[in-house]
Each structure stands twice: as structure tokens, then as C-alpha cells.
Amino acid sequence: MGKIKNIILDFGGVILDLDWPKMYSMLDFYKIDRSSVELRRVLLGIETGEIKPDEFYKVVKEVSKSTLTNDDVDKMWCSLLSILPQNRVDFLTELKDMYPLYLLSNTNILHINYLRMREQEKFDQFENSFHKVYYSYEMDARKPHADIFTQLLNKENIKPEETLFVDDSKENIDTAISLGFQTWLFNVETDDITKLLSIDAFK
């Protein structure tokens, strides 16, 4: 295993806790059909930027048996997002002084705008703790597709074998391994991103 010169981190599940039970409860409360093919299409599409917010709102309303407003959809969709822990943001700020640090996140404009509004200065600190943030909806691609990884590598002119990629999705990790990255499959139940420098890859 080569020396780590760069670090790429996932966001949701690794830095920001995701409250899936709360969002599923909201889906049920608003009588939204979770099995809808159209719903899955817009959930994936809004993360690549292919689907814009207006179409997202329209489809979610159509697959609901309730009468929903855009605010209702926002409330449901953003209920997934827990509070961004200050200690993790502080750790990232310190880590940036030690390694070129990048964020690679499957996310969407509604979640990012919501976090910017709710977290305000803390979210500014979070984004500024990276040399560059890469959001899927701005890249026309999402993990686990290799294209999103190669875009980052090419733009930053870094080598995968010198780069640690951290993610809580095995599918995303498998793609990274196939491209030559060093990896850490993050366990959301037991791992702590602030302990990153104690993992075997840094020993």
C-alpha cells in the first residue's frame, strides 16, 4: 500500500448522519408510494442534475395520495438530514492543513440549499475545509459510476493509488478499488470520521 497523498470523503453517512427512518415516516405520512418507478427516476435524476426541482416537486406530488405543496415536499425530502456536527467540521478544517482534501457526494441542489440555509456559517466552514467540493448534481454523474471519479482525478491531477477514498457504500468502494484507489469502507454504526488518521492506511 502506497503513501497517502490525497483524501476524498463522502458526505452523507460519513460526515453528516442521515435519518432514514424519519424520512420513511414522512413518506408514509404524506402517503407517497415508495415503490413508484417515477419516484425512483426523479430521486436518481435530481442527483445528476438531469431532473430539475420543478419536475421533482411535480412527480413527488403525483405519486402521493395527499395534496402536497412544494414546502411539504421539501419538509419530507430534507427530513433525512441531521444536524452537521461541529466537531467533525473542526476536524476537517485541521485535516485540510495536512492533506489535499476533497468531498465527493451524491447529492442534490435542494439538500445543499437547505443545509446552507439551516447551518449557515457552519456550512461555510464545512465547504471551506475542503480544497474542492464535488457535488454529483453539478457533475452530470453519480457514484458508483466511474465517470464521477475520473472527473475528479483529471480536474485535480491526482493519482488514485496515492488517494484514500472513504465512503459508506460498498458499491461505491468497489468502483474506487477497480480504479486503483486506497479505500476505507466506513461503517455508519461504529466508525467515526474524526478517527480517520488512526486507521491502518496511515500506519
Describe the structure.
- The longest helix has 12 residues, at 37-48.
- Strand 4 (163-167), helix 9 (170-178) and strand 5 form a beta-alpha-beta unit.
- Helix 2 (37-48) packs antiparallel against helix 3 (53-62), helix 5 packs parallel to helix 7 and helix 6 (109-119) packs across helix 7 (121-128).
- This protein folds into two domains: 6-17 and 84-202, HAD superfamily/HAD-like (Rossmann fold, 3-Layer(aba) Sandwich); 20-78, Orthogonal Bundle (DNA polymerase, domain 1), CATH 1.10.150.
- The chain has nine helices and five strands, in the order βαααααβααβαβαβ.
- A five-stranded parallel sheet has the order 3-2-1-4-5, with helices on both faces.
- The model has no long low-confidence stretch (mean pLDDT 96).
- The chain is globular, with a radius of gyration of 18 Å.
- It has 203 residues and is of the alpha/beta class.
- The termini are close together.
In short:
45% of the residues lie in helices and 11% in strands. It is of the alpha/beta class and 203 residues long.
Taking the sheet with the most strands, its summary is:
5 strands, parallel
Q: What do the pLDDT scores average to?
A: 96
Number of strands: 5
Number of domains: 2
Overall body shape: globular
The CATH topology of the largest domain: Rossmann fold
- Alpha plus pi helix count: 9
Low-confidence stretches: none
Distance between the termini: 10 Å
Radius of gyration: 18 Å
CATH architecture of the largest domain: 3-Layer(aba) Sandwich
- SSE topology string: EHHHHHEHHEHEHE
**Structural category:** alpha/beta
**Helix percentage:** 40-55%
CATH class annotation of the largest domain: Alpha Beta
The share of residues in extended strands comes to: 5-15%
Name the CATH superfamily classification of the largest domain: HAD superfamily/HAD-like
